Amino acid sequence: MKTLAATFAAVLLLVASAAGAAQQMLDVRLVKLTSRGSVSPGLENVAAIIQRNLPYAGCTLVDQKGCLMPANATLAFKGGYQVIFKTLDGNLGVTIMKGRKLLLSTAATLPDNTPVILGGFDGGSSSKHVFVLLKSP
């Protein structure tokens, strides 16, 4: 009986270890876009996408948070932003609020290692705020 219990405990430990190892991270960055300016270190890949598609050259990191995937979390960012994640049928439900005001509610598919950019919210003095979501492989 002790052998069976020990074997069962070992199997549970292996299953728990495998589940933890398979989890991916979701990196979420709040970025300020400006018509001129520099690019914060680590945002070069995002800046390239933005510069090809939008009239902004500067990208400054404002805040950064993360959570485990599948994501069912609420993250608070500087400037009063809240980003709420809910995993839905293989997609990620994303709700962005500033204070009590709903700014965006959408579903996104997040490919591994490819940034997804959401937003375009007023950042003051002709700048915009976007959220960059990046899922680890």
Main attributes?
single chain, 137 residues, alpha+beta, four-stranded antiparallel β-sheet, 2 helices, 50% strand, disordered N terminus
Describe the protein's architecture and organization:
With 137 residues, the chain is an alpha+beta fold. Helix content is 23%, strand content 50%. It has helices spanning 2-22, 44-53, and strands spanning 25-34, 58-68, 72-77, 81-88, 91-98, 101-108, 116-124, 127-135. A 4-stranded antiparallel beta sheet has the order 2-1-8-7, with no helix packed on it. The protein has a 4-stranded antiparallel beta sheet with strand order 3-4-5-6, with no helix packed on it. A hairpin with a 2-residue loop joins strand 5 and strand 6. The longest helix is centred in the N-terminal third of the chain and has 21 residues, at 2-22. The radius of gyration is 19 Å and the shape is globular.
Strand order of the largest sheet: 2-1-8-7
Structural class: alpha+beta
- In whole angstroms, the N-to-C terminal distance is 41 Å
Counting DSSP E segments of at least 2 residues, the number of strands comes to: 8
* C-alpha Rg (nearest Å): 19 Å
Mean pLDDT: 86
* Estimated helix fraction: 10-25%
For the sheet with most strands, the description reads: 4 strands, antiparallel
Percentage of residues in DSSP E strands:
over 45%
Inertia-based shape: globular
Q: Helix tally?
A: 2
Spans of 5+ residues with little confidence (pLDDT < 50)? 3-20
Order of helices and strands: HEHEEEEEEE
